[in-house]
Design brief:
Elements (H helix, E strand, L loop, with lengths): L2 H4 L4 H10 L18 H4 L6 H4 L14 H4 L1 H14 L4 H11 L17 H23 L10 H10 L9 H9 L4 H5 L1 H8 L8 H6 L1 H5 L11 H10 L8 H30 L11 H9 L6 H6 L2 E6 L6 E5 L3 E7 L1 E3 L3 H13 L3 H6 L2 H12 L3 H9 L3 E3 L4 H13 L10 H11 L2 H13 L3 H25 L4
Parallel strand pairs: 1-3, 4-5
Antiparallel strand pairs: 2-3
Helix pairs in contact: 6-8, 8-10, 8-12, 12-15, 17-24, 19-21, 21-23, 22-23
């Protein structure tokens, strides 16, 4: 290929083209706009596009040109149902709606609304918003039969409403519910719908009630969710009330005390040995060494963590991932539970894609789902890892086999790019430090070899009792009572 064919024909032309070229830099404070999934997510794998495209009903402008998904007749029926249920009229509600959303275009990326006028976009968003609320109301109150929507169609629409490219601004849905005659009832439709489709297996409705202001952006400087998918993500990050166990609290106290005493003794011994010239004083790890430990972990899956005596415990929020190393020997990894079914892969990929579209400041601090998927990908290699996570109550498998779950997690992880800052980097670092302790591995091997079943424990107690009785008998044989 010649330089002419490459388009470099003259110095002046090249200079002008360089001047005209602009780098698209996302401002660190820029608000999120409804947009397409980043091309990098689907660049190498064409099949991934199917995970971001609706299969039954399009919402918003991105897929509105597909007549097989737009389904105008169904949308009109759902919208009419919602408007009637809220004791409004279509023309009156549209007038109020248009008055409040004259700047509707600011909520969308300009590339997806170039062919739309303001009025066309407002009408589209109004129809889709009413149709969404009509479907959600009918879905929650078992009223889909009147629209001749089968269970299979309802399931597909349910998943479609949580896709990143299939959204309308949350402020639109909030405004439409505010026009309802019974505001409180319709204000809770969306969070209840999201809650029933959560990938975390716990009843979190009481959590939503306790955190409603932060979830919906009411006061405290929090903004409203960008759309339903954003609300879904916020609920996954909401922290439920933990039930406090007195034994665990006491154990943690003794553990922290032991760690403090051990660290002081370690420094003292190091100082004494350094003064005697026996060895250099113990130094704390540098930032570079900490970085290398966190980035170059040597553990590969759950099986290897088990060999180091690490136990697993489920939590119910993405903000609740911990690792505790008790007395430098026993370890416990607490990780959020996950329901794995035929919609989980689609849900995780869309949440990851949404986090990739956040501004730089948010990406540096809020890549929770992306970090969670990366951590699962590290921990799960095969079906035995899935089996252990199921036994610990962390995974609920609704697929046909554990091997399918392992493949699903690895597939999502391979298509999930590492965030600029891993939210759980400190957890990986703690696991790695524990995993490198030989004493922890030795103690775990001893426990697994000798205390893996109740029979071996009973045998140990029996042997101890026999030895004790033998010792007493011997003592009295040597020193008989007068």
């Amino acid at each position: 290929m010649t330089f002419k064919e490459l388009g470099v024909t003259a110095d002046r032309q090249l200079v002008n083209e360089i001047k005209e070229a602009k780098v698209d830099v996302r401002d660190s404070q820029e608000e999120f706009k409804i947009q397409r999934v980043p091309k990098i997510m689907v660049r190498n794998e064409d099949y991934l596009e199917e995970y971001f495209k609706p299969r039954e009903l399009s919402i918003g402008p991105i897929h509105s040109a597909d007549s097989s998904l737009f389904k105008k007749e169904l949308k009109l029926k759902l919208a009419e149902y919602f408007i009637t249920e809220t004791h409004n009229t279509a023309d009156g509600l549209l007038i109020f709606f248009k008055a409040g959303f004259k700047d509707i275009k600011k909520h969308f990326d300009k590339d997806i609304i170039m062919s739309c006028t303001d009025d066309e976009l407002i009408r589209l968003v109004f129809l889709d918003g009413c149709a969404m609320l009509g479907f959600i109301h009918s879905y929650l109150f078992q009223g889909l039969n009147k629209f001749h929507i089968s269970n299979r169609q309802a399931e597909l629409i349910r998943q479609d409403l949580l896709l990143m490219e299939n959204q309308v601004p949350f402020t639109v849905l909030h405004a439409l519910t505010r026009y309802a005659s019974c505001v409180t009832k319709y204000e809770w439709l969306i969070p209840q719908f999201v809650h029933e489709n959560s990938i975390i297996p716990k009843d979190l409705l009481y959590v939503i009630l306790d955190h409603k202001d932060s979830l919906f952006g009411k006061g405290n400087g929090t903004k409203r969710p960008d759309h339903i998918l954003d609300l879904y993500r916020r609920i996954l990050l909401t922290i439920p009330h933990d039930s406090h166990n007195c034994f665990d609290t006491l154990l943690s106290f003794f553990d922290s005390t032991f760690r403090y005493v051990f660290s002081r003794l370690r420094v003292l011994i190091g100082y004494v040995l350094a003064c005697l010239g026996v060895m250099e004083r113990f130094d704390t790890p540098t930032d570079d060494s900490k970085y290398m430990i966190s980035r170059m972990h040597s553990f590969r899956n759950i099986q290897e963590l088990k060999t180091a005596g690490i136990k697993l415990k489920p939590t119910y929020s993405l903000r609740r991932i911990f690792f505790h190393s008790r007395f430098f020997i026993a370890g416990q990894l607490s990780i959020p539970a996950l329901v794995v079914d035929d919609s989980t892969e689609r849900m995780l990929l869309n949440l990851v894609a949404y986090e990739m579209c956040l501004n730089k400041e948010q990406q540096a601090t809020d890549s929770w789902v992306t970090s969670y998927v990366n951590l699962l990908d590290v921990l799960i290699d095969n079906e035995q890892d899935v089996k252990d996570l199921r036994a610990a109550g962390i995974l609920q498998n609704h697929l046909s086999s554990d091997n399918e779950v392992a493949q699903l997690i690895n597939r999502v992880g391979s298509n999930c790019f590492a965030p600029s800052k891993d939210t759980y980097e400190h957890v990986r670092e703690k696991i790695e430090k524990h995993y490198r302790r030989k004493c922890a591995i030795w103690m775990a091997q001893v426990c697994q070899s000798n205390f893996s079943s109740p029979w071996t424990i009973l045998a140990l107690f029996a042997a101890t009792a026999v030895l004790g009785l033998t010792a007493v008998q011997t003592y009295y044989a040597v020193n008989p009572k007068n």
